[in-house]
Design a protein that fits this description.
heterodimer, A: alpha/beta, four-stranded mixed beta sheet, 20 helices, B: mainly alpha, two-stranded antiparallel ribbon, 2 strands, about 0% strand
Chain lengths: ~425, ~325
Amino acid sequence: MIRRVALILSIVGVSWWLFADTARHLWGASRSDSVIRFSHFGSYQDFETWKQVIGEFESAHPNIKIKQEYIPGYGTEYDNKVRRQLLAGVAADVLMVQDESFPHLADKALMDLSSLMSQSVNPGLQQTLHRTAIRSFTHYGKPYAAPLYGGNLLIYLNRRCLQKAAALRGTSIPLPDDDWTIEDFRRLCRELTCDFDGDGQTDQFGLWHPWWGYYLPFIWSMGAEVLDESRTHWRFTGPAAQKALQFYADLLLVDRVCPAPGELGQMRQDIAFLTGKVAMVINGPWFIPFLEESSLCDDYYVAHIPRGLGGRFTRVTWDGIAINNNIPRGRLQAAQKFVLFSSSERAQDIFAGSQRWVPARVACTGSFSTSGVRSGVDKFATSFDYLRVQPITSHWKQLDRAIQKHLRGLLAGELNVEDVLRNLANDPVIKTHFPLQ
Amino acid sequence: MNDNRGALLFTWPWLVGLIFLTIIPLGVSLMLSFTQWDGFSEADIKWVGADNYRQMFTGDRPANPSDPRYLKSIYNTLFYTFFAVPLGLIVSLLLAILLNQRLKGIAFFRSVYYLPHLLGGVGTILLWQWLFNPDVGLINTALQGVHHLWVLVADLFGTEIEAWKIPRWLHSPQWCKPALILMHLWGAGGTMLIFLAALQNVPERLYEAARIEGASRWHQFRYITLPHISPAVLFNVVVGLIGAMRVFKDAYLLRHWSQDEGLLFYMLYLYENAFEAPSRLGFASAMAWVMFAALFGLTLIMVVCSRRWVYYET
């Protein structure tokens, strides 16, 4: 009898140990409906900023608790993690999303926020947000995420590099003015490229050669386009595209103002800029906190994108907040409240104050500028006058891969611009998903 | 009967795991391999028959024209397997023979050579990443030293030498796979240990008899050692082949540096299809089954062929 009881007890014990959590997940309400899981990405500064936002939300809504789930890493890493969580049915109730991955998730995994966006604080959330931000999270006419904040690309300049180059040349090199042109930019790149010890090796490069996505502002400013406005047709052809691509290659191969891939070892652009190996980088506002905590904090400058024949444009990317489509109905209301709070002026001011992002709410853009102490940082807000959304599509990743593949031949000096443009237009990915108009 | 009950009692947790975590997922993945699905909603699962398999083999890829990458992943995987497995076996066997000597402090050396196998993981891969740094990495720093010495010697003798380029390892499409093979060889300790155990099981009396008969060292190795360790060779070949064909972790961590998708291996491409946007779980499942069939077939061939060269002492 005792043996039988012991046997049953051991079976029950082992079963509990093996399956209790799964059973709770599948059938039980493991958490109270007032606890909302929220996952986000970013740096530790983002983590701290979110902590502050969550703290304020919980003070305003004492009956709701937010479980902050920080997923380290950016972009693809976060996106992949969230996709795996969604596949496994364990994704958070509220998710941060990026515009690049948004088209893949929108109507599949995220909740339609149409009613939430329209019922928002007077005069309505839609009217108080940057137009490009709303567009980034609209899928077939419906908003599936509320825009939070974004970042546009401008040019960072290491003033120490400028001074060293000026000393070498025995002349002063002025900081770029707000209305500079692409020719001025090219001249500055050349002036900043220096061989200090005369050994024939470049000790300081003028510019970090940007990934094509970061070069988009130049492509647009030169009057070319990669995709059309509807983001369904290939437009990177013609003389303007040739000129833009030639300039991209010349920076590396003719002017030699950029380090070749691997020329600085495994040094990334942030370290290359910090150590003065390159004098200028194209980057977004998320670079500011890194610089502010470095020894370069007093010696960097932010310049506008130079003007070209096509005018002046900068590329913006947006991050948003969305609700998991599979959220239990009992938690939906609390999740909606958190989404609305994240888009509120109070939360947007907190985001602006972190100076990593420009808030999506137009009225809070000023908070970003006034939080800045360094010269030129406010340009991230003022350059919103010439914003443009990057060509995000549901085939973004394949497009990126295809473009990079063809550009590699150009940057290795194996193909000329005409060949690359022709190859791009004939690439199977581009031909299938983005036919020429 | 009582024995069976007892056995079931102790094995049921494992059996449950086998059924729910292995057999059922296997069945589901087989079913998924005949579908098109992005993994979000069961309602979106679309039955496509053998389309996923056809796409792999016929080159007719209307659904996703980026699939030439599939061929690239096969080429990279075969290249890696073709060099990593034989080289790994040779290096481990040589090490095992070396460490099978009766020397003072041999236990220390055995531990030293086995240690890298224990240390294998993400940390060591990141360490190798720095060793392979083309400009400041230790490997190229040493190679530069050799290069300078070579130039110096050539100058001394007044001969012209052909300039050679120091490899850029992970940054080069030609050298990234050899770099990974080199990394693989560093962890040869595990295979070495199996060879060492097999070597120690070879009866000493056979060597004595052979020596009396005047057999050379090579003949002793060829006709005594090799047949006796042949089961270990077979085991290491099969395990090495399966491991090499499934190479993933190293490539996943180091792929950012590689040019021209030099590190796009089969399993990495499978992972990309399954878990990176745009998700193609059906195609990824089909890839997994093709890999399973290939490995099963190769293992079967090796086991059948092994009857000719593997010697089991009865």
